[in-house]
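Hi all, posting the design record for the shared folder.

TITLE: backbone redesign
STEP: 1 of 1
STRUCTURE INPUT:
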């Protein structure tokens, strides 16, 4: 048996290490004392993945490369509660979730930077950013019944939006404008 191990290492060692001392493998698993994986490194020509596990072997942090590099964090229930990834326009984005894995905060860089907050909703309740060179702030109640938009166009304006998506009231430096059922009224 001992001779077999020596022969194995003599034959296998040159294949595991390059001449520069680099260890090469498609997958490396580092385990704790109980045999539970702590860190797994794996990759091929298209995908690279590194996972960090908790004491029970659950993935808690994942870093991936390849065509869609990302950093992903998970809570104890394995819900994704945080992400960091690149955008197609060259910027990056960060997503932060609540304990159930629902989106809570989204920060977007790049050509159209934005910051959005969610509260038990698939749509943002508060968002501010710059889209098409127009700075804006949007606030929407959780039930989605209307909202308000502040934008930095000329002139900067405050727009009230009803539940139908219509804009019945606009406030700007030019005054208050209200849309009536049939005509528009302007109050200086």
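Okay, here is what came back for every position:
SEQUENCE:
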């Amino acid at each position: 048996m001992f001779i077999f191990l020596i022969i194995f290492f003599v034959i296998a060692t040159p294949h595991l290490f390059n001449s520069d001392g680099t260890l090469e493998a498609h997958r490396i698993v580092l385990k704790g004392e109980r045999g539970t994986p702590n860190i797994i490194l794996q990759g091929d020509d298209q995908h690279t993945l590194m996972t960090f596990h908790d004491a029970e072997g659950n993935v808690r942090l994942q870093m991936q490369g390849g065509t869609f590099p990302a950093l992903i964090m998970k809570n104890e229930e394995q819900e994704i509660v945080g992400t960091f990834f690149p955008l197609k326009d060259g910027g990056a984005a960060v997503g932060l979730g609540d304990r159930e894995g629902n989106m809570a905060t989204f920060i977007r860089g790049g050509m159209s930077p934005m910051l959005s907050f969610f509260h038990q909703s698939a749509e943002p309740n508060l968002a501010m950013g710059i889209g098409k060179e127009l700075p804006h702030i949007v606030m929407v109640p959780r039930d989605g019944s209307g909202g308000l938009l502040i934008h930095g166009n000329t002139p900067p304006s405050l727009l009230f939006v009803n539940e139908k998506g219509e804009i019945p009231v606009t406030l700007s430096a030019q005054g208050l404008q209200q849309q009536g059922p049939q005509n528009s009224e302007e109050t200086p």
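COMMENT: The mean pLDDT is 85.
Let me know if anyone wants the other runs.
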